[in-house]
Amino acid sequence: MTAFPDALEITGPTPGQQLRRRMFGHQGFMIGAVFLVLLVIIALLAPVLAPHDPYAQSLSNRMVRPVFMGGTWEHPLGTDHLGRDYLSRLIYGARVSLMIGAVAALISGTIGTALGVAAGYFGGRVDAVVTFLINVRLAMPVVLVALAVVAILGGSLSVVIGVLGLLLWDRFAVVMRASTLQIRGREFVAAARAVGCSTPRILLSEIMPNIVNNLIVVVTLEMAHAILLEAALSFLGVGVQPPTPSWGLMVSEGKNMMLFEPWLVLIPGAVLFVLVLAINLMGDGLRDVTAPENRN
Amino acid sequence: MTNKPVLELKNVSKTYTIKQGLFGKPKPLRALNDVSLNLQHGEVLGLVGESGCGKSTLAKILLGLEAPSEGQVLVDGQALAGQDRIALSRRIQPIFQDPYSSLNPRKSIEDIITLPLRVHGIGDSASRDRELHKMLDIVGLPARVARSYPSQMSGGQRQRVAIARALIMKPEIVICDEPTSALDVSVQSQILNLLADLRAEFGLTYLFISHNLAVVEHLATRVAVMYLGRIVEEADVATLFETARHPYSRALLASVLTPDPDMGVPDTQLGAAYPNPIAPPSGCAFHPRCAKVMPHCSRIAPWPVPTSDGHVECHLYDQQPLQAAS
Hints:
The complex is a heterodimer of chains A (296) and B (326). Chain A has helices at 5-8, 15-25, 27-44, 46-49, 86-122, 124-138, 142-153, 157-167, 170-184, 187-195, 199-236, 247-254, 263-290. In chain A, helix 5 packs parallel to helix 9 and helix 7 runs antiparallel to helix 8 (157-167). By secondary structure, chain A is mainly α. Chain A contains 13 helices and no strands. Chain A has a single domain (41-295), classed as MetI-like (MetI-like fold, Orthogonal Bundle). Chain B has an 8-stranded mixed β-sheet, with helices on both faces. Chain B contains 10 helices and 12 strands. Chain B has a single domain, classed as P-loop containing nucleotide triphosphate hydrolases (Rossmann fold). In chain B, a hairpin with a 2-residue loop joins strand 11 (305-307) and strand 12. With 326 residues, chain B is an alpha/beta fold. The model of chain B has no long low-confidence stretch (mean pLDDT 82). In chain B, helix 3 (109-119) packs across helix 4. Chain B is globular, with a radius of gyration of 21 Å.
């Protein structure tokens, strides 16, 4: 049998190539990604990059001002009320923030995706139960629940990660449910069933690849959310406990001196702002970059 | 044809429950109402009817994607419900309407076409690759499309991929659910010719669902006309297109647009409204739109009257309609 005219022309790049092209062409995404990668590298190389031990106190060197406010290069960002090097604490604090963001997003992403995909695919009773769970979860104020849990268990890094991981799955569930609903009515799912695919196989290899874009976008948003919540909890004193360097804790410790030494609060606040902004820029960029494909 | 039917529907009904609001009483929607149909080996049965008459529900039941509420589906005389879906999928495969929706956009053409082989664990990667290239050749696609993705292809090419996927397992029966209605007219004929060639080459049996009578006349050997979940007429294709019996079949035939602009848009006398399937008309479901309606049509539902080559369900062909009424 000969090839038909319409069968000869295969044009255009593969979806992967298209995605890469759009990603590199998207300014917001690139700015966010560069900052985020930079912060991850800094966090990973913290022992190499930090000029001092973040825990080393020096009572004779308390509240040294940063270099741009008349300080010396010995402590480029000054020292805190216990004489600990502020730059070193910031660098080690990046580890805490990024770890909390990543692990909390991983836990909540797993829970939320499982619930959402199950609700969207099976519908009916499963959907009713999951929707109910989402509503229950949305009725619980995260900060209050975290306060209660910390009051019972005591504050620590793992408790904060656990609480955030178990509380922040609602958006994953909502988005994954909606995306699954959209995909499961498509004919390729019916075709896969007619071919004899098992349900797990349909979920993993037919549906998941089509909704993973949306998952990544929610992951970035929830990472930023978790990082901000950790800072808020640490600021309230129920998150990461001193002397662990955490940006939220640094803001909290500096707030007594805020009127006289505002940089104590401004520096960790600014870094937090940059990290969350970078993650959100990247998330928004990812949404823009992956959206056109959903139109097929 | 005197063959044994390969696929048989026996008094199949499918009822969906439609919920109306939060506190509304759920109402039944009879998508299929006591349908009996059989498919002989090697024939092409065209199934025609308006949108919403139950054609696609019928296809889903035949593919085992939906279970009938009542009645049975028999494959080679055995009930479908008891059969393994895996075993069934080797014998019956679908070709869907919309090739933009029936191919997973995230998968390469190679993955899509060989999926059935992988699911059923047939062959190793080398033999699957050979099968893939054989199928690509059969459906008229160049070998290099194997690594491309659906978004890089045209509608006609995608439909060829869907056909290759359906045929790679060498099924006996192919359910074509409006396989050309989403395509350009120029591509439609290519796909139809391909389907006709493949039927001759592999000895396939088709159930060809369409609302396009010209397509059905071109390809089918027998035609079943569906109206509101019932098969109102079944006949050989020549008989139906020359002397349709049921008034609905005649109206459908009259509605075919001709390429002559002077002819104008034909008047089907069907009126505008397709009845609400949740509250179907009493008696004969077609009576509100029928050109030859009789007084008892609104009271008594017609029954299948056997004809020389099928059946028709209309009081015009009953011998004793009034007897039954009394």
